[in-house]
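Crash report, auto-generated. Payload:
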Amino acid sequence: MPELPEVETYVRELAPLLGGRQVTQVQLLWPGVIAAPAASTFAAQLVGQRFVHFSRRGKYMLLGLASSWTLVVHLRMTGRLLLQNGSPPSHTHLILQLENGQQLFYQDARKFGRLWLVADPAPVLAKLGPEPFDPLFTPQALAATLAGRQASIKALLLDQRLVAGVGNIYADEALFRAAIHPARAGGTLLPAEVDLLHSAILQVLNEGIASAGSSLGTSGLQNYSRPGGAPGGFQEQFNVFRRTGAPCRHCDTPIQRLLLAQRSTHFCPRCQR
DNA sequence: ATAAGGCCCTGACCGC
DNA sequence: TGCGGTCAGGGCCTTA
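Recovered output after restart:
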């Protein structure tokens, strides 16, 4: 599932490919994908716009246009952006024809993803917590948000109001690196553990970005790929995520799976107590 | 304010 | 081979 490293990879790889390109035609095949404005006006407002700026906030992709408007994209579970020629793949819901002959496809098998075309993206992003790489996101700030919380640390890491961009994959991997059991109540973490978790979050996100994200395609849906369709590589470095029953890379104990906050959670029962 | 559960979707997978 | 049931899961909404 696209989380911060996957969205960051999109931003970095789309910038040179899409920068300066102009939208000449919009085909909206499934209007439900448009969150704002009304689907009937979305296409008309996007035609003629030129992509000039590329950034990210949490798991939201921000495609800045020459008009100063922004096309905001959230891929949720299975959303993908593909910059290609030729016929659209199955589950394509939006096609942007570009002036250079290329096409930008928005594809999403489960239809969870959404796009916004807005003058100001701030309201869309209003509920997000700090960016993990923002200097304001310090161990002390993380400790303050965890203080008194009874919910599991896994559930809290998935809450985008605490820190933006961490999803199921990187939450599990960060908790393993920090040697913290995912079911621990957030408020019970000791200061030293919060420090470990803070640096583990930054570490796994950085490693994910360095590997161009995680693609899970061998079993289950191919739910993330880079703009040209190539997979990321971080799944090769998973310590726990979707490794249920496989030996822990540190101690050989079989990785276990449990359900927290309605999300599958993977951990080593020996390394994470 | 916090926590928990339901909902949206549909391909993959499992058991029969 | 075919079929029905179950699962996954981010963000939003409702409920307690």
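Post-recovery validation: Residues 77-78, 91, 108-112, 148-151, 155, 219-221, 261-262 of chain A lie near DNA strand B (CB under 10 Å from a C1').
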